[in-house]
Amino acid sequence: MARTVKAEEFASKRREILNATQRLVLTKGYEQMSIQDILNEVQISSGAFHHYFASRGILLEAFIEHIKQQSGEPLLRIVQNPKLSAIEKLQGFFDTLDRLRIEHKAEVVSIGRVWYSDDNAIIRQKVDEAVMAMRAPLLTEIVQQGIREGVFTATYPDQAGEVIMSLLQGMGNTHAHLLLSFEQQRDDAFDAAQIKKIVATHAAYMDAIERILGAPSHTFYRATIAAVKFWVGAIRESNPT
Length: 241
Description:
Elements: H1 2-27, H2 35-42, H3 46-52, H4 56-79, H5 86-103, H6 105-115, H7 121-149, H8 157-180, H9 188-213, H10 225-238
Helix pairs in contact: 1-2, 4-5, 4-7, 5-7, 6-10, 7-8, 8-9
């Protein structure tokens, strides 16, 4: 029993360090974050830290794996639901990501400024690769289900998940940069043009996903002007100057 308790305590403290690392990466930036920052956050000594992670490099590997597992959770539950059709699963995945972003809009806006800074360029690339590795096979499983149901006719079903993830990541990066531009500009003409560009960008990417799947146009939802204005408001609320 004592051995089990020790293992649980070790795992718990390890998760605490990883969660602290995640907070610091998303608020300070990986390049600016020091081991001392983590020690202060978790209130442990350097010796105690190295009991869990031998080096900063080992910590980075564990952090990426931590993010990878987190990224798969919302999609995994949807994929494993036997009551949902392929279209319902894919739209459910999109809806879940949107819902989570809306529920944590203040954090999303605050994190976005740091996440897309140069200080996070390397770790952003590694996280994108980890998320791709976790989600692409699950999306491929949905595509293959859709082919069996006769609603998708993807030419390359085994590669479809990876291609869709590449599109989603590209769309996310483009949207983030366009939305963050609203912090620098406050002009009605600028707002109208940028909002129109974001809506068109989303439509273009969703159209590409539908074409890859061989699904009818507008099988999946398109971003609306109202939805984009919601995020513009959130960005400006967080930075009123």
